[in-house]
Structures are given as C-alpha cells and as structure tokens.
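hey can u run this one w/ calcium ion bound, need the structure tokens asap thx
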Amino acid sequence: MADKHKILIVEDDKYIINFISMSLKKEDYDYVIAKTCGEANALFYANRPDMIILDLGLPDGDGIEIIKNVREISKIPIIVVSARQEEEEKIQALDLGADDYVTKPFNTVELQARVKSQLRRYMQLGGGETPKDKLVIGGIELDDKSKQVTLDGEVMPLTPTEYDILKLLMQNVGKVFSTKEIYRAVWKEDPMGAEGSVAVHIRHLREKIEINPSDPRYIKVIWGRGYKMEVQ
Ligand code: CA
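ok here u go:
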C-alpha cells in the first residue's frame, strides 16, 4: 500500500480545525495540527508533510511568513484558508507561492476536491519523490542517505555521534531535549551518569556548525532543561 499523504493543518480556530480534520479523515489522509506559526515551522521540519492547509491569522504571527519559510526549501502544495475580508492577503499569499485558497465558510466537498487536485498535480510533477531523508535548517543540510552534512554549501566532517545528535535535533526542530534524552536516543542505552559526554559532543558539534560558538545560531542551550535546534 502506498503511504498515506500527510497534511499539516495550520489553524488556531478549534471549530475550523475540527472541520478540516474531519474532511481529511474521510479521505484517509494523515494530518498533524499546528495552532501557531512556531508550531507550524517545527511540525513542518519534523513531519515533512505533503501539503499544508494554512490559516493566515495566527496568534503569534502571520501565516504569510510560513509560506516564505516553506518555499525556501519545498514545493509542496499550500492551500490558504482565508476569510472573505482578507482579499489582499489572499493575493499576497498566492504571489508568495501558495497554490490555492478556500474562502470561509467552505464545505467538505470543496475542500476535499481542492486537496485532491493539488496533491495530484504535485505528485505528477514528481513532488512525492522529494527526498525525505534530506533535512534543511537555515544553512545546514543533512542528507541521511549519504550521511553528509553541509553548512552553507561546505561539507562538515562530523563524527558519527555528532551526526546522530545533529540529526535528532534537526528532526525535532524547536523541541527541547534533556541530555538524558539525547543520550538515550543516540547511544541507545541508559545514561547512568554518562550524560556529561553529551555536552562534550555538542560542544564539538557547535565548534563545527556555528560561526560563533559562544553565540550559537542553531543549537541553543535551554538552561536547566537541555538543548534544542532553533527554528530559523
Ligand atoms: Ca485564525
């Protein structure tokens, strides 16, 4: 069986979230839900969805910013959900690379038809073949097939441990991991006091990928909690 298409729903209105997710469920799509721009960016990198259904008015910012971010690295279809009075925003969204829009209120059939037609076009264009084993965050590209990491186009020689830590953080951008969690995920065993080595590897990793390791852009320390890959 072919993989189900995964759709990222970005919407803060509970009623519309319910409505969209019910519509998608009927067509047997997988979906994940983000209620803010921050969550949307994190879930986009973590899940590599095949499509985004995007509300523009979000509590922590403008959905337009999400279109810009996604378009830097991906051609997946983006359907904007707009309110009638947001005509100008709608045009701006299409200009920036959204593929289609539905105007509130819309019905299930209309949404399903648009989703289906956008996914079909995307698959015909070979979109479904975009390598999911490639993670991109800011200037860092991690290719899990060749196990190669480049920073601003230059190959970074990472040790296997550094690579695994970086991959874990890039797959879960925005999520904070304690040293114990990193240890378990990378070494595949209980830390039993060996978490100190996590800090050492992260220091080495930072020396390689950060232009200024004392003011890191990518891997941030959250004091008392752990580390995270910053949403760029
Ligand atoms: Ca909204």
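The chain has a mean pLDDT of 88. anyway lmk if its weird
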